[in-house]
Known about the structure:
Strand order of the largest sheet: 3-4-5
Number of strands: 5
Strand content: 25-35%
Radius of gyration: 13 Å
Number of domains: 1
Shape: globular
Structural class: alpha+beta
Bound molecules: zinc ion
Order of helices and strands: EEEEEH
Largest sheet: 3 strands, antiparallel
Amino acid sequence: xxxxxxxxxxxxxxxxxxxxxxxxxxxxxxxxxxxxxxxxxxxxxxxxxxxxxxxxxxxxxxxxxxxxxxxxxxxxxxxxxxxxxxxxxxxxxxxxx
Length: 97
Ligand SMILES: [Zn+2]
Ligand SMILES: [Zn+2]
């Protein structure tokens, strides 16, 4: 029952009102910034899901807009604090350009 030990529940705060949102249905795709509608203030913000290659936990990074979303290179795991970027995702995203 220790919430800090549970990386299955994805929780993040709305950057507009601070309401805690949970991705109960795992609709957020890993490595892709997408819009999320806050269940409290009903405004959109951007979320970015990363999966840590060190501890295997997923982290959600909220931002006001997709343009303000953290660079994947700068994202750190919210559980172990290490850069959570997977190298193959970096290669894939750079090839798109
Ligand atoms: Zn909100
Ligand atoms: Zn980690």
